[in-house]
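User: Predict the full complex structure for these chains.
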Amino acid sequence: MLGWHFFSHKAPMAISLVFFIGLSVTAEVLPVSLPRGGQVSVGFAIWLASIFLFGPTGGSIVAASAALSIPALLRKDPPVKFFFNAAQYTISATLSGLVFIGLRGATLMAVPQIGLPADFLPFVAAATVFYVINSSLITAVIALTGEIGFRRIWLLNVYPFMPNFAAMTALAITMAILHAKTSYFGLLLLIVPLMVARQTFHLYSALRESHISTIKSLIASIEAKDTYTRGHSERVAEIAVKIGRRMGLSEKVLERLEYAALLHDIGKIGIPKSILLKPSHLDDQEYNEVKKHPFLGAMIVEEIEFLHDIVPVVFHHHERLDGRGYVDGLKGEGIPLLARILAVADSFDAMTSERAYRPPYPLEDAARELADNAGSQFDRNVVQAFMDTYYVNRDAKINSGQEIT
Amino acid sequence: MEHMSKRQQAKAMLVIFALFLFAGSLPNFPFEWIWAVIFFAILLIGSEFLDVTLPQGSHVSVSSAFIIAMLSIMPFQPALATTGFGLLIATLLRERHVPWEEMFFSPAKNVVSLISAYAAYSIFKSIPAAYASWSSNIGGLVLAAIVFYAIDTLQDQLNLSYGTWRFLLRSYVSSWRLAGTTYAALACSGLLIAVTYSQIGYWGILLLCLPLFVIRYSFRLYINIKRTYQNTIEALASAIETQDPRRRGHAKRVAEYSIAIARELGIYGDELELIGYGALLHDIGKIGLEENEYEIAGTRFPDDDQHSKIGAEIVENIHYLPGVSKIVAGHHKKHLQMEEESKGKTLSLSSRIVGVASAYDNLVNMPTFGERLTPRDALKIIKKDQAYYDPGVTRALAEVLRRAGGLSFRF
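Assistant: Here is the predicted structure of the two-chain assembly.
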């Protein structure tokens, strides 16, 4: 298809084309990192704008150049992936461009006159065609190579980006019209605010990272006073997130789970050290003191507005499915799901850590303990998810910090 | 106007001044701009509902982009009318129960900024912006935009500066540093709106609202996470105090005092922020200590004080807070002795500020150290102890307390 373009190539304003190739490469080099992993670039908007401006030929040159450009080389993609990307962008851009020309009759560079809003249709149609073909091709390839179904990949990778797609389309229309009407002046004015937004967003992502790492180091220093619980919260967070991921929770919810797990024992700070560090079993009165810690923890977390939604998770992490837990003695589904996950992760780490009055349980014994108490103390599904992650990864110790892939 | 505070009087004067300018522009109103006036007024009102509050209390809203756009395409009468009426309607819709000088403040402020910008432009160029061509015009427009934000920020800072002139310039600079890039982005967006309006028309501007909202969105995310970060440190610092109920609120109060003292001493911007964090975390090292070690009578500790050291080590791991571990490490050191021993290498000012603030709070608010003292008596004790407490910092504290009437104050 790229070959066909070379034969039918009618030099669509060479300088503009080079300018857009430059823009598109720059956009790929400067993506916006999202706080929960992943990146977004405005490349899509630039390719769409090129399709509007230059039609199928110019559009696919710009789009394919993105795939063949420095970032692809920097990422050191395998050649197959590299050529596949170039090919799928060419196909998507060509078809989209043909739709645009078919509906509008000419590219925006050839006929810059435009009567909005009546002329919106070709733009929206072309954008939709590009998006649908581009995502279908990628989804199909992933579905062919992996064992995950087409539908599931679509739901996971394509569906959540719909709002993004709408915004990119609006941006592409703006860029294309601006370039057709004002040449470079308007475009440059548009780039400045976009760069500033990117920079601000970058600061935001970095600070968000610092936020969780600051919590981690403060928690670590609180735990440092007790040799037996050192590193407990971070390990519980790791286990809980693995369980949650196995249960299919969204990344957004997993993040809340991580915060809840890191802070679940913060209330222990208000309990006298003489009780927490007692080398023998506690008497009733002392045990009642210890039982206050979810409540105290919830009070502390309550102070952090950003974490309001995890207050109940911290508050209920010692509930039991049969209602014999504390603080409220909630039963079954009445306990928040994240608290049920936290309970399993917490107990597992507690059992496999040394205590003043007992040695650590062997991992197998701790896992059996969880299995035996599934249904009475713990949620069956959560324990099942734990076992799945645990046995998938049975060679690696669960608390050794290895990633399950 | 007897019953009004100085700030209210200043606001009232600003409003009257703006009304005067406004009335002056009404004759010769060019009525062919009426549709543009309505269109921009709607945009302006809409954007006012999407403003972002900065940590110091001032607001940034995308409405200024629309004002810059009007500046570039209209003669000054319709631009002035749109700004004045649009912002007034927005304020009326948003907050109904505010005093009149409060209600008129934002429209009046923007009218004054806008007039200044037009004036700056006319000094630069004799042709009105609306009729000049884009390429020949750009220098004048950039100048006008800079003047607009300069005057606008100045009025905001005057409003927020607590009636003190001394540190106006400094807080002015710091607010530019925080929001400067946003102003640049908004000014560019304004010019962009103007270009789009003249080349494409109303629909083009609706398309452009998207990048404007993206800027606003990312800026708001950033400001929110900044607030969250501070919130979290505050909560965790007070969590440590639950070990001993009598200490409750100490960290937060020390942070308030420290920031007030630092402001008084002319510290601003990032350094001010770090002092706040240092003060919040100054006693974090106490989590490592036994309960009996925790309570040491008196307001001083030995130089090789353990909790400062532990605390500094903890804070060292927080990369977002560079330099705070030094504040924590030094907050109990003898200020004079340090100066002599290290030959001019003084204990950092931030540490000394936190040291004085903490000592003051111990004496005034904390039952741990015997009877609570009055602010006056506490100050006397701290003043006497010049070996421990930097007299300059103590003077600043005294000044802060005098102004606040010795009671509580906000930062």
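Residues 202-241 of chain B form the longest helix (40 residues).
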